[in-house]
């Protein structure tokens, strides 16, 4: 159990930004680095982790990619947590989905002070739905990929699983900042902003 706790601490440190790490990996020559997409959370020190299982994905959402992915999955599973092993493209899609989740739900929540993730899913569904669709389209175009159907349903299901989590726009560089950089790039090239709603709400909150 002590080894598992240390392992979880290491994993949480590695994925602590909970966002778009690809540019950083590439800048360090680590484009093919093994990665873990952690869909588990620890409410406070000493408490057991909550697994990222939802009503749309009862098998769990945590995933690993790379040479040591199977070893990582085995260790997590031995500790009672789910983890699937994915090839690079499916892993990238799931990573982007989680990025979209945290960027969309945190930004909508920030527009409604005191709103939890669950409140955003329940009370501001129309707002977050529009933002999910916008960010998904931008990410798909940037990465030349096609997401699986029903993304909104999956992301809302995860929000119900962690409904008590507070909302706030944090770690901008690693999260919403990636989408804002796509907007800046497009505008600099004389093209339409691919994320106009996202940009408008960032400005509304004086984040940019």
TrEMBL record:
It comes from the Eukaryota. Residues 1-19 form the signal peptide. Keywords: Signal. This is Uncharacterized protein. It comes from Solanum stoloniferum.
């Amino acid at each position: 159990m002590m080894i598992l706790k240390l392992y979880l601490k290491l994993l949480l440190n590695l994925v602590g930004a909970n966002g778009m790490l690809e540019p950083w990996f590439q800048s360090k020559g680590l484009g093919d680095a093994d990665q873990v997409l952690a869909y588990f959370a620890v409410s406070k020190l000493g408490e057991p982790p909550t697994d990222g299982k939802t009503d749309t994905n009862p098998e769990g959402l945590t995933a690993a990619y790379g040479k040591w992915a199977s070893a990582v999955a085995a260790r997590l599973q031995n500790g009672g947590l789910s983890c699937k092993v994915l090839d690079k493209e499916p892993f990238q899609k799931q990573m982007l989905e989680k990025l979209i989740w945290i960027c969309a739900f945190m930004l909508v929540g920030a527009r409604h002070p005191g709103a939890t993730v669950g409140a955003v899913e329940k009370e501001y569904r129309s707002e977050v739905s529009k933002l999910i669709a916008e960010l998904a389209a931008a990410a798909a175009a940037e990465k030349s990929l096609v997401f699986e159907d029903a993304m909104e349903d999956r992301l809302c299901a995860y929000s119900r699983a962690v409904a008590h989590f507070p909302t706030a726009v944090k770690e901008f560089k690693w999260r919403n900042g990636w989408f804002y950089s796509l907007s800046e790039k497009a505008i600099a090239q004389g093209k339409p902003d691919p994320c106009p709603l996202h940009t408008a709400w960032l400005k509304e909150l004086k984040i940019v």
